[in-house]
Design brief:
Blueprint (H helix, E strand, L loop, with lengths): L3 H15 L22 H8 L1 E7 L12 H12 L3 E7 L5 H10 L11 E6 L2 H6 L3 E10 L1 E6 L17 E2 L5 H8 L9 E2 L5 H9 L5 E5 H8 L5 E5 L9 E8 L3 H17 L1 H8 L8
Parallel strand pairs: 1-2, 1-3, 6-7, 6-8
Antiparallel strand pairs: 3-10, 4-10, 5-8, 5-9
Length: about 290
């Protein structure tokens, strides 16, 4: 599976609800379990002694080759629950519903999964309603689409028109790519360099001087460009763009006790500042959901 599949899945799941004005805000509370839901999931996990956490492959800076923010978060969660950690990395399927089925409530037909908890799930009301077999809860980060620019080549950017005639790096199969392809009636299409796996690759093209600007997720751009005074990173200047979307956890619907324990753990990580420190180590500014 190509690395861009994971980005297509995440973008498709979040674009409608997060990026256009008038879209519903993502809920942030722990989903309510059915009254007859079981409460033995955490007890079974404690008897096993390890927490199995699903993380997406090829999702920098959250997970790449065994490292990243989501890996650090998984380790922090397992420590908080007094358990050993077992990571279950996987390639994203074509849509988020498939990922929830394969990694949360049923398991993959190839024989792996499900995990006890899946990270980096959009906290989105329609997604929740369409997947009654799971609980989606505990948002831990607000992602957004941003653009970075070379200050020597683009001193200011009040609108995309300030990039006229300049090359812009953006992964084509991403939300940032779709937005730029359609911006101002397609005015910038010929300027786009789109054969890129993700926004980190776009940022690297900017660093090498191949383009004047690079667009992608804030986390991608920041992780590659943090602390480099040659570049400025700002929200993509589109009038209807909202302030991002939240990502959180997913567990089986009946795993009420596990959901409550994970919610308490991420609350503690947020209050103590540890969650922000996890992101800072990757060069990413933590944005509360």
């Amino acid at each position: 599976m190509k690395p861009s599949v994971g980005r297509r899945r995440l973008m498709a799941a979040t674009a409608a609800m997060a990026c256009l004005a008038g879209a519903a805000a993502a809920p942030v509370a722990l989903a309510q379990a059915p009254a007859d839901a079981g409460g033995a999931a955490l007890a079974r996990i404690r008897a096993r002694g390890r927490l199995v956490v699903g993380v997406y492959n090829d999702l920098p800076p959250f997970h790449l080759a065994g490292r990243g923010i989501d890996v650090d978060l998984a380790e922090a969660l397992s420590r908080a629950l007094g358990l050993e950690l077992t990571l279950l990395p996987f390639n994203a399927d074509e849509n988020m519903n498939d990922d929830l089925r394969n990694l949360v409530w049923r398991g993959h037909y190839l024989g792996f999964g499900p995990a006890d908890v899946l990270l980096h799930v959009p906290v989105d009301a329609p997604l929740m309603q369409g997947n009654p077999q799971v609980q989606i809860f505990a948002p831990y980060f607000r992602e957004r689409v941003m653009i970075a620019r070379d200050l020597q080549r683009v001193a200011k950017m009040d609108s995309l028109a300030d990039l006229a005639g300049q090359k812009i790096a953006v992964p084509g199969q991403s939300l940032a790519g779709w937005l730029l392809i359609g911006a101002d009636g397609g005015a910038y299409r010929e300027q786009l360099v789109t054969r890129l796996a993700n926004g980190v690759d776009a940022a690297h093209a900017l660093q090498r001087g191949e383009v004047a600007a690079a667009a992608g997720h804030a986390s991608e751009l920041e992780s590659a460009l943090a602390g480099d005074p040659r570049f400025a990173i700002q929200p993509l200047p589109l009038p209807r763009l909202r302030d991002g979307w939240a990502v959180g956890f997913a567990v089986k619907r009946q795993a009420t006790d596990l959901a409550q324990a994970l919610q308490a753990a991420v609350n503690d990580l947020s209050r103590s500042g540890e969650l922000a420190r996890l992101f800072a180590r990757a060069g990413v500014a933590w944005r509360a959901p």
